[in-house]
Prior knowledge:
The protein is about 45% helix and about 10% strand. It is α/β, with parallel strands linked by helices. A seven-stranded parallel sheet has the order 8-11-7-12-13-6-14. It has a three-stranded parallel sheet with strand order 2-1-5. Strands 3-4 form a two-stranded parallel sheet. The relative contact order is 0.13. Mean pLDDT is about 85; it is low at about 270-280.
Amino acid sequence: MDARAGQPLNTLTLTPTSRLARAERQRLAAEAAARGDTAWRTPSVLSIAAWLGTLRDDALLVGAVDGVVITDDAARELWREAIDSEVFIGEPRVVELAQRAWRTVHEHRLDRPEDWPEVLLSEDSRAFQRWARRFRSIARERGVVDEWTFAAALPDLIRRRALPLPDAVRQVGFELEAAPLVRALFDALAEAGVAFPEEDGDDGIEPPRSATPTIRSHADDDGELRAAAAWARSRLAEQPKARIGIVVPDLAARLGSVERIFSAVFDPPGFALDDSREDRGDAAWHVSMGPALADWPLVADALLLLGLGPNRVEQPRAGRLLRSPWLVDYDLEQRARAEAEARLMQWAPYALTVNELAFELKAAGATRLAEALERWRSTTIAHRDAAWPSTWTERFQTELSALGFGRGRPLNSREFQVLRRWHDLLEAFAALDGTVAGPLSRPQALLRLAERARSVTFREADPGSAIEILGVQEALGARFDAAWLTTLDRDAWPAAARRDPLIPGPLQQAVPSSTADGCRARAVEELAGLCRIAPELHGSFARGDDEIPRRCTPLLDIEPIVATETTEPPVRVELEIVAEDRTAPALVRHEVE
């Protein structure tokens, strides 16, 4: 027993999101440092998803399940094989729909698809029933268990203590009612004798109090975000140590607008001149959600290079290759590569050979890239036969290494994290040997790798920014000194009900997002939780246009204030004054032949 913390030494702290897990670990470390401790046992703080991953690893070690538990990413290959036997050959969106329905069935503990009554089945749900049956059959043949089937069996494994369990579990940040599967896990832990200590308020955390936001309406979406950014900047100028939250419910859809507007408000000169600088003004703010991994320039160039043929290269792709800053010695040969590209644009046909490209690079002085292209060509020609994903991963890494990928200009912190995430993606792709039906051709391997790069999002680690821009799920349970809630219109609160097309309607009544009453109850819970994230709370929504006007959500019962839109004067930028040098020699201009 830890006397000062009042908790058993083997205490697991669970949070609904990974962001809250990081915040709780930082809080516990700061609390230990404030007590004067110079060393302490690292607390076990995990999100629900991370805890399920830990249990998956424990089950493999102790042999608690028959088969190897695979991730949802690896299970995608089994779903593809089950679905490709019908008309949807090679359609990733159908595979995504099937995986989402499979997760809903297990997360909300619905009846198994094999047990659905025939009278309730539509054509789509009947097809999903067949796919699910094939999916289970293929999984048994391969000796694997998908993570949701494993999660559904966890409550029984926990009751029997077939897995290592903690002595106590703390729940932190659970503002909303947990999904039925999570509740079943907690009930099983309690039945197995795991303690759930009540927070007594002596741990330094002030109990959250509900605040009533002041809501203002703005003319359009950009005006609303601009007002939130300007408020955050002025608030931070007044109190530099304040922690400020900006909640954007539709953050994924408005990610580009959020980054553009906050960059313009916080660093107008940097935004206008060079938005890619490492030292730009967004050190004060951080967005929790990022774009797809495939949309980051470094990964986009890697996929482009892997898709090049060893014989013919189209001019647009050749231009991107020559301009890629990630290839060997880019800083030393940047000008020579630009000259080679200019010459190629003048005389080269739409498609040219790799030898022609290498010859032009050597003529311009870019010998390092030319030699790398020649090595890459001889390496790629040898990679023609079909192979397993692990072999393709090795081949892809060899080809990129031949081009000197990652050894161009120095990487900044963000680019280094993107490169590391790309390597993680390659490792995950190599682990698909046990789930694919057989060796893959090069186009098939590239297609699967690109699909995975488009399906995962990436954002660099938060460096400790004072302003955090989050979605609703990440904001719930967080604590700020001041916060701004955007998009408080009646279209977003409550959101429209969305039923899964592959699950019979009557079976979805237990899923909150599938019914109007469930969406309204969920929205009320979420708004109540958001009103507790900060003592100072502001809200806003966009009025829209005359054809589709928007109104404030009725769930808050607050009369909004019409904001006066003002145009801020441009920020004055002090320009550097350079003395004219009249003694320098004249610039000799070289005309391109």
